[in-house]
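USER: Fancy drafting a protein?

ASSISTANT:
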Amino acid sequence: MNLKSVFRPTRKHAAALGVVAGVATLALTTTAGAAGTAQAEHHQSVKKPTVVLVHGAFVDASSWNGVIKRLQHDGYPVVAPANPLRGLASDAEYLNSYLESVKGPIVLAGHSYGGSVISQAAAGNPNVKALVYIAAFAQDKGETVAELNSKFPATELGSALNAVPFPLPGGGTGTDLYVKPDKFHDVFAADAPKSVTDLAAATQRPVSASVFDEKPTEAAWKTIPSWDLITTQDKAIAPDEQRFMARRAHAHTVEVKSSHAVPVSHPGAVTRIIEQAAHASTR
Protein backbone atom coordinates (compact mmCIF):
# COMPACT_ATOMS: atom_id res chain seq x y z
CA MET A 1 0.00 0.00 0.00
CA ASN A 2 1.25 3.47 -0.84
CA LEU A 3 1.03 5.40 2.38
CA LYS A 4 1.45 8.70 0.55
CA SER A 5 -1.71 8.02 -1.38
CA VAL A 6 -3.66 7.33 1.82
CA PHE A 7 -2.70 10.63 3.47
CA ARG A 8 -2.72 12.75 0.31
CA PRO A 9 -5.98 14.78 0.34
CA THR A 10 -8.04 14.87 -2.81
CA ARG A 11 -9.38 18.11 -4.21
CA LYS A 12 -12.84 17.20 -2.94
CA HIS A 13 -11.48 16.55 0.57
CA ALA A 14 -9.52 19.79 0.53
CA ALA A 15 -12.61 21.74 -0.46
CA ALA A 16 -14.62 20.11 2.31
CA LEU A 17 -11.96 20.86 4.88
CA GLY A 18 -11.87 24.46 3.71
CA VAL A 19 -15.64 24.82 4.20
CA VAL A 20 -15.43 23.34 7.72
CA ALA A 21 -12.55 25.63 8.67
CA GLY A 22 -14.43 28.64 7.31
CA VAL A 23 -17.57 27.79 9.29
CA ALA A 24 -15.53 27.30 12.48
CA THR A 25 -13.77 30.64 12.01
CA LEU A 26 -17.08 32.40 11.38
CA ALA A 27 -18.58 30.83 14.48
CA LEU A 28 -15.64 31.90 16.66
CA THR A 29 -15.70 35.41 15.22
CA THR A 30 -19.43 35.73 15.77
CA THR A 31 -19.17 34.44 19.36
CA ALA A 32 -16.29 36.79 20.17
CA GLY A 33 -18.14 39.69 18.59
CA ALA A 34 -21.28 38.95 20.58
CA ALA A 35 -19.26 38.69 23.81
CA GLY A 36 -17.52 41.99 23.08
CA THR A 37 -20.83 43.70 22.35
CA ALA A 38 -22.36 42.35 25.57
CA GLN A 39 -19.34 43.54 27.57
CA ALA A 40 -19.51 46.99 25.99
CA GLU A 41 -23.24 47.21 26.70
CA HIS A 42 -22.59 46.21 30.32
CA HIS A 43 -19.97 48.96 30.75
CA GLN A 44 -22.30 51.50 29.15
CA SER A 45 -25.17 50.44 31.42
CA VAL A 46 -23.09 51.06 34.59
CA LYS A 47 -23.17 54.84 34.62
CA LYS A 48 -20.75 56.57 36.97
CA PRO A 49 -22.38 58.67 39.68
CA THR A 50 -22.01 62.43 39.78
CA VAL A 51 -19.58 63.52 42.47
CA VAL A 52 -20.70 66.66 44.30
CA LEU A 53 -17.94 68.36 46.32
CA VAL A 54 -18.80 70.76 49.14
CA HIS A 55 -16.03 72.95 50.53
CA GLY A 56 -15.76 74.09 54.11
CA ALA A 57 -14.89 77.28 55.94
CA PHE A 58 -12.09 79.68 54.96
CA VAL A 59 -11.78 78.38 51.38
CA ASP A 60 -13.85 78.27 48.20
CA ALA A 61 -14.65 75.58 45.62
CA SER A 62 -11.24 76.01 43.96
CA SER A 63 -9.76 74.11 46.92
CA TRP A 64 -11.09 70.98 45.16
CA ASN A 65 -9.25 71.68 41.88
CA GLY A 66 -6.71 68.89 42.24
CA VAL A 67 -9.44 66.40 43.11
CA ILE A 68 -11.71 67.58 40.29
CA LYS A 69 -8.93 67.16 37.74
CA ARG A 70 -8.34 63.55 38.82
CA LEU A 71 -12.02 62.61 38.96
CA GLN A 72 -12.64 64.05 35.51
CA HIS A 73 -9.63 62.15 34.16
CA ASP A 74 -11.23 58.96 35.52
CA GLY A 75 -14.51 59.73 33.76
CA TYR A 76 -16.62 61.00 36.66
CA PRO A 77 -19.09 63.85 36.24
CA VAL A 78 -18.16 66.28 39.02
CA VAL A 79 -19.46 69.60 40.32
CA ALA A 80 -18.35 71.77 43.24
CA PRO A 81 -21.05 74.30 44.13
CA ALA A 82 -20.32 77.25 46.38
CA ASN A 83 -21.12 76.75 50.05
CA PRO A 84 -22.62 80.04 51.32
CA LEU A 85 -21.11 79.65 54.83
CA ARG A 86 -23.91 81.76 56.33
CA GLY A 87 -25.48 79.22 58.69
CA LEU A 88 -26.07 75.47 58.86
CA ALA A 89 -29.81 75.53 58.17
CA SER A 90 -29.59 77.93 55.23
CA ASP A 91 -26.42 76.36 53.81
CA ALA A 92 -28.00 72.90 53.91
CA GLU A 93 -31.21 74.18 52.36
CA TYR A 94 -29.21 75.74 49.55
CA LEU A 95 -27.26 72.52 48.94
CA ASN A 96 -30.44 70.45 49.08
CA SER A 97 -31.98 72.57 46.34
CA TYR A 98 -28.81 72.23 44.26
CA LEU A 99 -28.84 68.44 44.60
CA GLU A 100 -32.35 68.39 43.14
CA SER A 101 -30.83 69.63 39.86
CA VAL A 102 -28.38 66.71 39.64
CA LYS A 103 -29.74 63.76 37.66
CA GLY A 104 -28.97 60.18 38.65
CA PRO A 105 -26.93 58.75 41.53
CA ILE A 106 -24.76 61.10 43.61
CA VAL A 107 -21.66 60.65 45.73
CA LEU A 108 -21.65 63.62 48.10
CA ALA A 109 -18.37 64.71 49.69
CA GLY A 110 -17.79 67.44 52.23
CA HIS A 111 -14.58 68.93 53.62
CA SER A 112 -14.38 70.41 57.11
CA TYR A 113 -17.63 72.30 57.88
CA GLY A 114 -18.87 70.97 54.53
CA GLY A 115 -19.40 67.68 56.37
CA SER A 116 -21.98 69.33 58.62
CA VAL A 117 -23.78 70.63 55.56
CA ILE A 118 -23.91 67.33 53.64
CA SER A 119 -25.17 65.48 56.73
CA GLN A 120 -28.15 67.81 56.88
CA ALA A 121 -28.77 68.31 53.16
CA ALA A 122 -28.63 64.66 52.04
CA ALA A 123 -31.31 63.39 54.42
CA GLY A 124 -34.26 61.97 52.51
CA ASN A 125 -32.64 62.34 49.09
CA PRO A 126 -32.79 58.89 47.41
CA ASN A 127 -30.21 59.87 44.78
CA VAL A 128 -27.42 60.32 47.33
CA LYS A 129 -25.82 56.87 47.45
CA ALA A 130 -22.73 57.65 49.54
CA LEU A 131 -21.39 60.33 51.87
CA VAL A 132 -17.65 61.04 52.01
CA TYR A 133 -16.27 63.05 54.92
CA ILE A 134 -12.90 64.66 54.21
CA ALA A 135 -11.37 65.89 57.49
CA ALA A 136 -14.93 66.84 58.26
CA PHE A 137 -17.58 67.26 60.92
CA ALA A 138 -20.35 64.65 61.09
CA GLN A 139 -22.67 65.68 63.89
CA ASP A 140 -25.63 63.83 65.28
CA LYS A 141 -29.07 65.43 65.46
CA GLY A 142 -29.08 68.29 67.94
CA GLU A 143 -25.30 68.21 68.36
CA THR A 144 -23.41 71.42 67.67
CA VAL A 145 -19.84 71.75 66.45
CA ALA A 146 -19.01 73.59 69.68
CA GLU A 147 -20.29 70.66 71.76
CA LEU A 148 -18.25 68.18 69.75
CA ASN A 149 -15.11 70.29 70.01
CA SER A 150 -15.50 70.59 73.78
CA LYS A 151 -15.09 66.81 74.18
CA PHE A 152 -11.54 66.85 72.79
CA PRO A 153 -8.35 68.85 73.42
CA ALA A 154 -8.48 72.25 71.79
CA THR A 155 -6.74 72.65 68.44
CA GLU A 156 -4.70 75.64 67.34
CA LEU A 157 -7.45 76.97 65.07
CA GLY A 158 -9.43 78.77 67.78
CA SER A 159 -6.64 81.15 68.72
CA ALA A 160 -5.81 81.75 65.04
CA LEU A 161 -9.21 83.23 64.16
CA ASN A 162 -10.04 86.88 63.60
CA ALA A 163 -13.64 88.00 64.26
CA VAL A 164 -15.18 90.66 61.97
CA PRO A 165 -18.70 91.99 62.61
CA PHE A 166 -21.20 92.36 59.77
CA PRO A 167 -24.80 93.67 59.62
CA LEU A 168 -27.58 91.08 59.45
CA PRO A 169 -30.35 91.58 56.85
CA GLY A 170 -33.10 91.71 59.48
CA GLY A 171 -31.17 93.95 61.81
CA GLY A 172 -28.54 93.22 64.41
CA THR A 173 -24.96 92.18 63.93
CA GLY A 174 -23.37 88.89 62.97
CA THR A 175 -19.77 87.79 63.21
CA ASP A 176 -17.60 86.51 60.38
CA LEU A 177 -14.54 84.43 61.20
CA TYR A 178 -11.29 84.52 59.21
CA VAL A 179 -8.00 82.72 59.80
CA LYS A 180 -5.32 85.28 60.55
CA PRO A 181 -3.10 85.50 57.44
CA ASP A 182 0.12 84.93 59.40
CA LYS A 183 -1.37 81.75 60.93
CA PHE A 184 -3.05 80.32 57.83
CA HIS A 185 -0.17 78.18 56.58
CA ASP A 186 0.89 76.63 59.89
CA VAL A 187 -2.60 76.03 61.31
CA PHE A 188 -4.66 75.25 58.23
CA ALA A 189 -2.35 73.92 55.51
CA ALA A 190 1.14 73.25 56.83
CA ASP A 191 1.94 70.67 54.13
CA ALA A 192 0.91 72.85 51.19
CA PRO A 193 3.39 75.21 49.46
CA LYS A 194 3.53 78.60 51.17
CA SER A 195 3.08 80.31 47.81
CA VAL A 196 -0.30 78.56 47.61
CA THR A 197 -1.36 79.25 51.19
CA ASP A 198 -0.40 82.93 50.95
CA LEU A 199 -2.90 83.31 48.11
CA ALA A 200 -5.51 81.23 49.95
CA ALA A 201 -5.14 83.36 53.07
CA ALA A 202 -5.67 86.55 51.06
CA THR A 203 -8.75 85.23 49.23
CA GLN A 204 -10.32 83.14 52.01
CA ARG A 205 -14.09 82.91 52.43
CA PRO A 206 -15.22 83.75 55.97
CA VAL A 207 -17.70 81.60 57.85
CA SER A 208 -20.42 82.97 60.09
CA ALA A 209 -19.63 82.18 63.73
CA SER A 210 -23.23 81.03 64.14
CA VAL A 211 -22.48 77.71 62.37
CA PHE A 212 -20.65 76.47 65.46
CA ASP A 213 -23.75 76.78 67.66
CA GLU A 214 -26.49 75.68 65.26
CA LYS A 215 -28.10 72.32 66.00
CA PRO A 216 -28.62 70.04 63.01
CA THR A 217 -32.03 68.43 62.61
CA GLU A 218 -30.75 65.56 60.44
CA ALA A 219 -27.87 63.08 60.43
CA ALA A 220 -27.84 61.51 56.97
CA TRP A 221 -24.94 59.20 57.85
CA LYS A 222 -27.40 57.12 59.87
CA THR A 223 -29.12 55.93 56.69
CA ILE A 224 -26.57 56.52 53.89
CA PRO A 225 -23.27 54.56 53.71
CA SER A 226 -20.32 56.77 54.56
CA TRP A 227 -16.57 56.99 54.07
CA ASP A 228 -14.19 59.09 56.15
CA LEU A 229 -10.70 60.40 55.39
CA ILE A 230 -8.98 61.26 58.68
CA THR A 231 -6.08 63.72 58.66
CA THR A 232 -3.56 62.81 61.34
CA GLN A 233 -1.64 66.13 61.29
CA ASP A 234 -4.79 68.26 61.53
CA LYS A 235 -4.63 71.42 63.65
CA ALA A 236 -8.22 72.49 62.93
CA ILE A 237 -10.26 69.35 63.78
CA ALA A 238 -8.46 67.01 66.16
CA PRO A 239 -7.69 63.59 64.65
CA ASP A 240 -9.28 61.83 67.66
CA GLU A 241 -12.43 63.88 67.14
CA GLN A 242 -12.50 62.78 63.51
CA ARG A 243 -12.03 59.15 64.55
CA PHE A 244 -14.87 59.42 67.04
CA MET A 245 -17.27 60.70 64.39
CA ALA A 246 -16.14 58.08 61.87
CA ARG A 247 -16.64 55.19 64.33
CA ARG A 248 -20.05 56.47 65.32
CA ALA A 249 -21.10 56.62 61.67
CA HIS A 250 -19.68 53.14 60.99
CA ALA A 251 -17.74 54.77 58.18
CA HIS A 252 -15.20 53.09 55.93
CA THR A 253 -12.14 54.88 57.24
CA VAL A 254 -8.76 55.78 55.77
CA GLU A 255 -6.07 57.82 57.53
CA VAL A 256 -3.55 60.06 55.82
CA LYS A 257 -0.64 62.06 57.22
CA SER A 258 -1.94 65.47 56.24
CA SER A 259 -2.93 68.90 57.44
CA HIS A 260 -6.54 70.02 57.44
CA ALA A 261 -6.24 71.23 53.84
CA VAL A 262 -6.01 67.68 52.50
CA PRO A 263 -7.87 68.37 49.20
CA VAL A 264 -5.01 70.74 48.35
CA SER A 265 -2.03 68.86 49.77
CA HIS A 266 -3.15 65.26 49.06
CA PRO A 267 -5.69 65.37 46.23
CA GLY A 268 -4.79 61.81 45.20
CA ALA A 269 -5.78 60.38 48.59
CA VAL A 270 -9.04 62.33 48.51
CA THR A 271 -9.80 61.11 45.00
CA ARG A 272 -9.14 57.48 45.93
CA ILE A 273 -11.58 57.41 48.84
CA ILE A 274 -14.27 59.16 46.77
CA GLU A 275 -13.84 56.59 44.00
CA GLN A 276 -14.00 53.78 46.56
CA ALA A 277 -17.36 55.13 47.68
CA ALA A 278 -18.50 55.47 44.07
CA HIS A 279 -17.54 51.88 43.19
CA ALA A 280 -19.22 50.45 46.29
CA SER A 281 -22.43 52.43 45.86
CA THR A 282 -23.06 51.68 42.18
CA ARG A 283 -22.00 48.05 41.70
